Amino acid sequence: MSDQSNQENPRKEWLKIFLSFMLIFYGLATAGAAYQVRVFTAMTNRANNVGLIELVRANDQYSQADQIANLDRQIITGLWVAEAESAKRDVFEILIDNLSTEGLASIQRSTDLDDQYFEEIYAQADTLYENAFSAFHVSSDLSSIKGEYDLTVLLLAMGVAFTAWGSFIEQNNFVRYLFASISLLIFAAALWIGIGVMITPMPVEIEPLSALGALLM
Questions:
Q1: Domain range holding 189?
Q2: 3 part of a folded domain
Q3: 182: closest CA among 165, 168, 195?
Q4: Residue 149 lies in a domain
Q5: How far apart are CA 102 and CA 110, in angstroms?
Q6: 146: domain CATH number?
Q7: Residues 29 and 187: beta-carbon distance below 8 Å
Q8: Predicted TM-score (pTM) of this structure
Q9: How far apart are CA 214 and CA 217, in angstroms?
Q10: Residue 5 has pLDDT above 60, yes or no
């Protein structure tokens, strides 16, 4: 009876030490994963805000470009009417002076608003629009990484529960061994996910294309 008790005590102590170390590992891993969740939450929000700012500015630029294009179209129509009515030279000069730089270059090339004109007039708006959706894609990628860290934190929280319950059980019975085994498996799964996330290439951070947009961040 005494020999059996002596054999059980070393096993009991070994399992107790194992569960104690697991609690330490779980505490450190949970703290690290929770910190990464916070970091990636901030990065996701920032990228999303950049996308929203750039999208608003792109819409504003599209509106301005539409107004310029409509005005240039009206002026060119006025030039055609003036030519048909053999208007004075002063009329042509006034109309031409009110054309945009792109509009003037366009009528010198083709006497009308050509494709190059529209590419130039909407270039800034298109660039802002592309930058906005690049930022949204980055925000989505960062959110996916954050989701992996969220899952890691969830697994670690479950593992802490099994480890703690295993530590509370005094005797080395089946339940205690089961909880210790589950604790180890959950920690391995969380570690696997965490390592997979850490080696995932980070998306390139997108910055606003204007100083004002940077200040708003």
A1: 11-216
A2: no
A3: 165
A4: yes
A5: 12
A6: 1.20.1270
A7: yes
A8: 0.76
A9: 5
A10: no
